[in-house]
Amino acid sequence: MENWSLFSLCVLLGLTSRWAVSFHSYSGAGKPPMFGDYEAQRHWQEVTYNLPVHEWYFNTTNNDLNYWGLDYPPLTAYHSLVCAYVAKLLNPEWVELHASRGYESHSHKLFMRATVLFTDILIYIPAVLLYCFYFCDGSSKQKVATALCILLYPGLILIDYGHFQYNSVSLGLALWGILGLGLGWDLFGSLAFTLALNYKQMELYHSLPFFCYLLGKCIKQGLIGRGFFQLAKISLTVLVTFALCWMPFLSDPKQPLQVLHRLFPFGRGLFEDKVANTWCSLNVLIKIKTLLSRETQLFLSFALTLLFILPSSLKLLSKPNLWQFKLALVNSSLAFFLFSFQVHEKSILLAAFMLPLLVKDGLLLPYVVTSLAFLFLSLYLLSHLTRTNEPLFWYFPFLVISVATFVWLEPPAKFPDLFPVLVSILSFLHFLGFIIYFNLVQLMEPQRKKSQKKTN
Amino acid sequence: TVMAAPMTNDQSWFYALALGVSFLKCLLINAYHSTDFEVHRNWLALTHSLPVSQWYYEATSEWTLDYPPLFAWFEYGLSHIACFFDKEMLVVPNLNYASPATVLFQRLSVIVADVVFFYAVKECCKCLREDKGKDLLGKPSFILTVLLLWNFGLLIVDHIHFQYNGFLFGVLLLSIARHCQNRHFEGAFLFSVLLNLKHIYLYIAPAYGIYLLRCFCFTQSNADGSLQWRSFSVVRLVILGTIVLSTFAVSFGPFIALGQLPQVLSRLFPFKRGLCHAYWAPNIWALYNIADKAFSILARGFLRCLVICALGSFMFGWHVHEKAIMMAILPLSLLAVDSRKDAGIFLMLSVTSHYSLFPLLFTTQELPIKIFLMLLFTIFSLASLKTLFRKGGALLNPLEVTYLLGLIPLELICEFVYPLTVWQKTFPFLPLMLTSVYCALGVTYAFIRLYISLLTCSDTTKKTKMQ
């Protein structure tokens, strides 16, 4: 069968799973007064449509920041504005200032879900296809299999089409950035990644590898001459993109400061909810949240993040090739997730460990189905296409048992949070293992037969 | 370089496909379901709560029992598992009861019953001619498995609209497979069971009857394919008769004993006298022609005959539901992976009739699903059959391609453009009419081509029996 038909089948399977998941509940459905992320997105459409730009990030009589105030960079706001225009065309009640708070209806849900699908098709899915086509090793069958696995990845599907978010936009733009870098189009790649960063500040997790890779590449080309010009062009691209995105907020110095204040709420604690990172897990043994002052917490998280990110970044700086770049991305995001301040569980986008959140949203069924399907599919394809006998097979029953335990057993009354905490701690240990493993791989570069001939 | 593992000598791909489609079906649990959902809930309730003597008299709900007794027993069996999900669904007066547990149970029952279909497909694959050394995606058995397990019509009719066609077609395909494998008694038994599960399969009963008479009761035929009258085996006829009659006896027996046969029949065939003649006459006319030719047709013609019976009854019957087209498409899939001409006819018929199922799912929420799944199935069948028969030119001629492409503007007009016009209020049924008329062209064309192939097939005595 031809490649294009195989890839189309993958896309269609991905799209069908996405839309089928969207039939289910969303975050905060039917739960006044605050509802959830779905209502937050709807509220942002309301705010951006009805209020002038300089009021978007400020606490005014018309804009109550305590009720889902904007806390993403400007590009998200512009996106909400565009959606709001469409919403106004379909049904003005959806974005009525104040009156539309907590608006819930079947047709509105369809509209919101459709906006996610639209941006997914526009940005994320083409990036995945191109990535698999150009940057995956192996036969065309392996490329198609990789594309299928990526497109069926439950974490993204469940969060975007279940819980309700637009991660496909930021991840898609970041992926375009990686594509650009991989094809040698550094300016395009920088542009795409800067846009990703201006969509969700979470992309900072990936920023250091991008920076080190590009800087390292320029240094290699010689800082006097070509390399310098390249660096200048990249910096200019980044700065201009930032300027364009933040333009409405540059008239008054108070504006960008307030936006930054909203994006990085150091006022909130070290962590919220049960998240599988170091601080939450450590808190079980030593109550660091209350023991240490906020300044100390900030310093500690900053220091540890930097500590874990430094080896990987320096290695990339010295050896700026694509393989190093990919590993650095993994290591950087893991480091940020594990050690930084105010991390939310969604930051990891790893389905297995978001179970408590998804159960709260009423998404147990799609969670179980998509996770099992994904695990089975990837293990099956892995064993058939690469002839490796990974000891990953033990993961399957392990996850099934842990899910079953979580769903069916009642925790003892003394520890009502026992299972979510256990899940967090176990996940944390996994991630700690991953970050150590991937750092070792990146730094030591064990024998890689096929990638030796890879050039930039 | 990394070598791809040879996948031809293990059957795990079958289970992967089966598991994959089951996952997809699970994701559709919360999709729209039609009144058929309530129909089956009602039958669960009445078979569970009422004695057998009441089953065909119960009329609290408008959805009275109108399937043969074996299906009623099937629902009765299901109802015992339903107890563990939600006892309230088994209460007859609970009309339109659809709690989450009820939906989950009913949907799961369809998904689990499909196991019969999986087994039948596996058996059918054994009847195919296999080419050794082909890569997996090009193997006829792989293509057939996908065409059947991932069939668009079954997915949206069974797992969204809500019915048990997968289970029923499983019994049909298993019966066909048994005939291929020369296990005729089992095949006959399975078909009798099928008739007692859903009487719509009476449409293809003539094909069965004639085939069994011709190819099984006459143990030998002459060199040119004509009947050898002396080889008629009375023993075989008697055994077949016993099997069929005893199946019917087990099924209808209790009701005959209760003197309820007329009532049961009136539920199964809800026609007045006059309408009855008008309903069956065109069928018999169509079938007579087939029967005439069928006597000289060899085993391969059996499937073809079956498909034409099904298609003929679809075309000429009055009370036919568009879902009945599945009866023609599924057996035709078996023919499609075997011959180029049949593949071409299959593509025409399947794309057209799958599109004709679109009006079944009229909700906005299900619109993307039906489009994605339709594209999925169409692209797969086009690409895989094209690869399978790449030697020998295109499968579809330009006119056929144009016709099929015409479905795209038709869909855009009917589903997107027309509802925004003024005429939507005054002529709301125009899109449906357009769809029906357009699809009828394709179905008729396929029927004519199949009929012609049946006639020409009988002239070629070189074709060997499938045995």
TrEMBL record, chain A:
It is found in: Endoplasmic reticulum membrane. Keywords: Endoplasmic reticulum, Glycosyltransferase, Membrane, Signal, Transferase, Transmembrane, Transmembrane helix. GO terms for cellular component: endoplasmic reticulum membrane. It is a multi-pass membrane protein. Residues 1-22 form the signal peptide. Pathway: Protein modification; protein glycosylation. GO terms for molecular function: dolichyl pyrophosphate Man9GlcNAc2 alpha-1,3-glucosyltransferase activity. InterPro entries: Glyco_trans_ALG6/ALG8. It holds the Pfam family Alg6_Alg8. It catalyses: an alpha-D-Man-(1->2)-alpha-D-Man-(1->2)-alpha-D-Man-(1->3)-[alpha-D-Man-(1->2)-alpha-D-Man-(1->3)-[alpha-D-Man-(1->2)-alpha-D-Man-(1->6)]-alpha-D-Man-(1->6)]-beta-D-Man-(1->4)-beta-D-GlcNAc-(1->4)-alpha-D-GlcNAc-diphospho-di-trans,poly-cis-dolichol + a di-trans,poly-cis-dolichyl beta-D-glucosyl phosphate = an alpha-D-Glc-(1->3)-alpha-D-Man-(1->2)-alpha-D-Man-(1->2)-alpha-D-Man-(1->3)-[alpha-D-Man-(1->2)-alpha-D-Man-(1->3)-[alpha-D-Man-(1->2)-alpha-D-Man-(1->6)]-alpha-D-Man-(1->6)]-beta-D-Man-(1->4)-beta-D-GlcNAc-(1->4)-alpha-D-GlcNAc-diphospho-di-trans,poly-cis-dolichol + a di-trans,poly-cis-dolichyl phosphate + H(+). Its EC number is 2.4.1.-. It comes from the Eukaryota. The chain crosses the membrane at residues 110-132, 144-161, 173-197, 227-249, 298-318, 325-344, 364-385, 392-409, 421-440. Belongs to the ALG6/ALG8 glucosyltransferase family. Dolichyl pyrophosphate Man9GlcNAc2 alpha-1,3-glucosyltransferase that operates in the biosynthetic pathway of dolichol-linked oligosaccharides, the glycan precursors employed in protein asparagine (N)-glycosylation. The assembly of dolichol-linked oligosaccharides begins on the cytosolic side of the endoplasmic reticulum membrane and finishes in its lumen. The sequential addition of sugars to dolichol pyrophosphate produces dolichol-linked oligosaccharides containing fourteen sugars, including two GlcNAcs, nine mannoses and three glucoses. This is Alpha-1,3-glucosyltransferase. The lineage of its organism: Eukaryota, Metazoa, Chordata, Craniata, Vertebrata.
From TrEMBL, chain B:
Its main location: endoplasmic reticulum. InterPro entries: Glyco_trans_ALG6/ALG8 (IPR004856). It is a multi-pass membrane protein. Its EC number is 2.4.1.-. The keyword Glycosyltransferase applies. The chain crosses the membrane at residues 12-33, 97-121, 142-162, 200-217, 237-258, 301-321, 342-362, 368-389, 401-423, 429-452. GO terms for molecular function: dolichyl pyrophosphate Glc1Man9GlcNAc2 alpha-1,3-glucosyltransferase activity. GO terms for cellular component: endoplasmic reticulum membrane. Keywords: Endoplasmic reticulum, Glycosyltransferase, Membrane, Transferase, Transmembrane, Transmembrane helix. The keyword Cell cycle does not apply. It is found in: Endoplasmic reticulum membrane. Pathway: Protein modification; protein glycosylation. It comes from the Eukaryota. PANTHER family: DOLICHYL GLYCOSYLTRANSFERASE, DOLICHYL PYROPHOSPHATE GLC1MAN9GLCNAC2 ALPHA-1,3-GLUCOSYLTRANSFERASE-RELATED. Belongs to the ALG6/ALG8 glucosyltransferase family. This is Alpha-1,3-glucosyltransferase. It comes from Cyprinus carpio carpio.
